Amino acid sequence: MREREILMPLKAMADKIIDTTAINVHQLKDAVQRHFLSPTAKEKLLALHVTSFGYRYGLPADADIVLDVRFLPNPITLKT
Question: In this structure, what DSSP letter does residue 74 have?
Answer without folding.
Answer: P
